[in-house]
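Appendix C: a fully annotated inverse folding record. The material below is reproduced so that readers can follow the format used throughout the book. The structure is listed first as C-alpha cells, followed by the designed sequence.
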C-alpha cells in the first residue's frame, strides 16, 4: 500500500487559476478574431480605382445613349442602354 501524498495547501488553487487564466486568454483571442471578421463582413467592399473608372465610363455611355435616343431611333441601342443601366444597378446593389 502506497501512502497518499497531499499537495501543499494552495497548490491546487494556483494550478486551477493558471488554467482558467489560459482559457480566458484563448477565449479573448478567439473573440477578437470573430469580431474583426464580423466587422469586416459588415463593411461595404472597397471599390478599386480601375472599377471606378469602368463604372464612370458605363455611366457616360448610358447618358450619351439617353441624350441621343431621339437622334438615333434604334431599338437595339435602346436595348443596349437598358442592359447597361441594369448592369450598373446590379453593381450598385453589390457595393
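Designed amino acids, in order:
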Amino acid at each position: 500500500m502506497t501512502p497518499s501524498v497531499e499537495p501543499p495547501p494552495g497548490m491546487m488553487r494556483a494550478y486551477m487559476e493558471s488554467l482558467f487564466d489560459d482559457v480566458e486568454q484563448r477565449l479573448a483571442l478567439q473573440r477578437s478574431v470573430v469580431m474583426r471578421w464580423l466587422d469586416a463582413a459588415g463593411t461595404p467592399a472597397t471599390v478599386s480605382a480601375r472599377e471606378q473608372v469602368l463604372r464612370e465610363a458605363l455611366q457616360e455611355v448610358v447618358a450619351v445613349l439617353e441624350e441621343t435616343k431621339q437622334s438615333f431611333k434604334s431599338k437595339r441601342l435602346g436595348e443596349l442602354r437598358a442592359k447597361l443601366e441594369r448592369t450598373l444597378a446590379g453593381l450598385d446593389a453589390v457595393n
